[in-house]
Amino acid sequence: MKQPKISNLTIDRKGTTTIRERMAKNKKVKITINVDQDSLESLRKLAGQSGASYQKLLNQILREGLNGRSNAESRLDRVEQEIAKLKKKLIA
């Protein structure tokens, strides 16, 4: 397949504006990351099974992982507080 010449390319300013507006509404940020090939293949396979795009699935996995971490940290904080109370009772 023949590569197009850069001089023949045009910028779709209206389309670009539309995309930027949608991204601003969704509060999403475009980033670039390095992912292991096998992880990406697994993610795409899961996405294909669920019918979602792999990027949406990755975002969901990240969100759940971060929420789970917060929940685990808050549980750990509560356990540490209970241990501190028990230590005080034992010392008294």
Structural notes for this entry:
This protein has 92 residues and is mainly α. The chain has one domain. Helices cover 72% and strands 0% of the residues. The chain is built from three helices and no strands. It has helices spanning 13-26, 37-50, 54-91. Helix 2 (37-50) packs across helix 3. The chain is elongated and about 85 Å long. It starts with 12 loop residues before the first helix and ends with a helix. The mean pLDDT is 85.
Count of separate DSSP helical elements: 3
- From the alpha carbons, calculate the radius of gyration and give it in angstroms: 24 Å
Q: Beta fraction of the residues?
A: under 5%
Gap between N and C termini: 82 Å
Secondary-structure-based class equals mainly alpha
Q: Outline, from the CA principal axes?
A: elongated
Helix content estimate: over 70%
Number of strands: 0
Mean pLDDT: 85
N-to-C series of helices and strands: HHH
Please summarize the sheet with the most strands: none
Which ranges are low-confidence, i.e. pLDDT below 50, for 5 or more consecutive residues?
none
Number of domains: 1
Short overview:
With 92 residues, the chain is an all-alpha fold. It is 72% helix and 0% strand. It has one domain (9-91).
Map the helices and strands.
Blueprint: H1 13-26, H2 37-50, H3 54-91
Helix pairs in contact: 2-3
List keywords for this structure.
3 helices; 92 residues; single chain; elongated; mainly alpha; 72% helix
